[in-house]
Design a protein that fits this description.
Blueprint: H1 6-13, E1 31-34, E2 37-40, E3 46-47, E4 50-51, H2 63-85, E5 91-102, H3 110-125, E6 132-138, E7 147-155
Parallel strand pairs: 5-6
Antiparallel strand pairs: 1-2, 2-7, 3-4, 5-7
Helix pairs in contact: 2-3
Length: about 160
């Protein structure tokens, strides 16, 4: 893993920190790279391995807290991508984000929550950070997390990754 490059410089400029990586349990991979595309496993809002936002939006978690959790999830996705790719400079374009928001049945602001992740990716990658997105309300998430994010990116070069 390299801690230098244009994307790392942009993270520093934005005062953003990659909190992971937080790889999934076996036999899952944190990232699968195939055919010029890299896809992350779902990333929870963890900092230093600790879940920072648990609960249910519209019940115990506010939109602002959920949005911050989504930001952390996106940064964790970048962390596992950096490990898998060797450098985030290989990210050519963010293609898609799938987000799951633990939601009370009457909560309908999932997009406002997931905007936190989208904003981070756009801020880091500029126009290449624009992406398609799904913001899905669910009854519960792993470990009681309030938000979980998956990211799919187009990559350049093979960097020895298969």
């Amino acid at each position: 893993m390299t801690a230098s490059g244009r994307v790392r410089a942009r993270l520093i400029e934005l005062d953003l920190e990659l909190y992971g990586p937080h790889p999934p349990h076996d036999p899952l991979d944190a990232v699968v790279v195939h055919g010029g595309v890299a896809r992350t496993s779902g990333q929870l809002p963890r900092i230093d391995g600790v879940l920072t936002c648990s609960g249910v939006l519209g019940r115990t978690v506010t939109v602002a807290e959920g949005r911050r959790a989504a930001e952390v999830c996106a940064l964790n996705a970048l962390s596992v991508l950096e490990v898998a790719l060797g450098t985030l400079d290989r990210v050519e374009r963010v293609l898609s984000v799938t987000a799951y928001v633990a939601s009370d049945p009457d909560f309908h602001e999932q997009p406002a929550v997931v905007d936190g992740a989208s904003a981070v990716l756009f801020d880091v990658f500029g126009e290449a950070g624009r992406h398609t997105r799904s913001a899905i309300g669910v009854a519960a998430l792993p470990r009681g997390g309030a938000v979980e994010i998956e990211v799919i990116v187009a990559i350049t070069g093979d960097g020895g990754v298969s």
